[in-house]
Amino acid sequence: MLKMKRFLLARRRVDQWGVSLSGVSSPLYFPFTVAIAGLFSLAGIYVAFSRMRRLSHHMRSPFGFVAAYGLWALTLMALRGDLHSGNRQLGFMILLLVLSFAAPGLCLVRRPLRMLVLSARLGVFLSLILSLWATYVIGLGVDNRYNGGGNAAIMALLVTLGAIVATVRVKDAPRFLPNGLQYLFIAAVPVFLTETRAILIVLPAIIIAEFLVSCWEWAPKVRRFGLAAAAVIVACLAVAPPIQAMVMQRFVTVYDYYVQGSREPDMISGDIRLVMWKSAVQVIREHLFNGVGTMRMFDYLKAIAGPQAPMIEGFHHVHNFILQELLANGVIGLLLMMSILASFLLTIIRSPAANSVKRVAVYFFFSVFVFGLLHDPFYHELVMSTVFIFMAVMVTQVRRWKARVRAGSPVAAFSP
């Protein structure tokens, strides 16, 4: 017993730095977040199963829907005979079920949301420096999109998620990591260098929304000045040659190719997506209830694609998380997945958290959702770990705020 107490006291000092390391490493595309999320989850499994009351409490949270979703997917795999090591989906479902216990593993972190927010701010700053260094010093992004050492689209999503978390307003913020919208603007640079279309739409929308919210809190004269200054800055950015060149390359060419019928732009990635999506819709119509699983998914798609089948050879997902989920686990799987999101957002919105915390929860999954319409973020270990660390931190922090309200603290909007 004495050794256990010493271990827990040691963890109390270490765990908060684990949360901080995950907040720093995720916007940098470093894999530490996966290991940290795994360690917290293993500790959380021990905590959750130590008492039936704790396990019941955990299953009544949004993570109960994660368990339901994971068990549904595993049941379908068992019925198809796909429970073997060669099934990529099996590994991700096991990882998902393990990561769903990260929240109980945070029991010794005193202020988890504060640690995550401040470390995310540092991570976004470092991501800016690393992207500029990689692009303009060693030339990794001169002829190609900046990718952080991996996938350019995933890089854009991770730095955006880090910037979103960084905008949560904390009490007594450090002088060198103050509250503000600057983290969204800083993240815009590496996102611009990745040239990821989905995030290039999402991030400006979030910046505009947060700027308007901030303007509403200013005095009328300051608000008018701020709006005028923002209009001038947007106009200047619109005529900047690098931005015009990127818009032409990543957006106007899509319009010219698919609407105007021009055959000059190279739209092979778009053509591949269209082949997969059209084939996926037909497969889904025939297997709406339980899908076909990921092991045989592309065999079905290639059979329908016919002469265009070689275009989708070698792919593992269809670059659209809704179609992917319908193919893998059917409409019930998609409903269970969306219930995780709905339950989480309702938990945060109904909590006594400050509005900045609630907006961040919405922005976070809005970004993941839009990104998922052109990619599949849920079959990437680092993205999945980042999402579950965020959910675990938010749910843990909200529970503690609710406990303070029940204990007699004034009902107010709590900030980390």
UniProtKB/TrEMBL annotation:
GO terms for molecular function: ligase activity. Keywords: Ligase, Membrane, Transmembrane, Transmembrane helix. It is found in: Membrane. Residues 184-337 form the O-antigen ligase-related domain. The keyword Glycosyltransferase does not apply. InterPro entries: O-antigen_ligase-rel_domated (IPR007016), WaaL-like (IPR051533). Pfam families: Wzy_C. The chain crosses the membrane at residues 28-49, 61-79, 91-109, 116-138, 150-169, 176-193, 199-218, 225-247, 326-348, 360-376, 382-398. Its main location: membrane. It is a multi-pass membrane protein. This is O-antigen ligase family protein.
